[in-house]
Design brief:
mainly alpha, 6 helices, 434 Repressor (Amino-terminal Domain), 0% strand
Length: 102
């Protein structure tokens, strides 16, 4: 079943898209979305820096894929208990700190 912009003429679709981009640009300038980094992610990044580890190296150390590591650092995926234990053991991050910031 069709709906939305499917029934619009091509010229209206293009105008709608153009206006959408203009609105997004305006919002980015006047109402930017703050990037909130969790304290746990900050701590992981600090430990990576202190140990001179790249994201790839840290993923291997934690036994996870580079993709999952990227998702953890970007906040797209939460830290599981299994990963929390590995953060404690491999990166020497205090377990109380990890639990308080899951």
């Amino acid at each position: 079943m069709k709906g939305g912009m499917d029934f619009l003429p091509d010229s209206d679709k293009m105008e709608f898209t153009r206006l959408g981009y203009m609105i997004k640009e305006w919002e980015d300038i006047y109402y930017p979305t703050p990037i909130i980094v969790s304290p746990l992610v900050k701590k992981i990044e600090e430990r990576m820096s202190a140990l001179n580890l790249k994201q790839r190296d840290t993923a291997k150390l934690l036994g996870i894929s580079e993709g999952r590591m990227s998702e953890l650092l970007s906040g797209k995926r939460r830290v599981s208990i299994r990963i929390a234990k590995r953060l404690r053991d491999s990166l020497n991050i205090n377990s109380d700190f990890i639990l308080d910031n899951l």
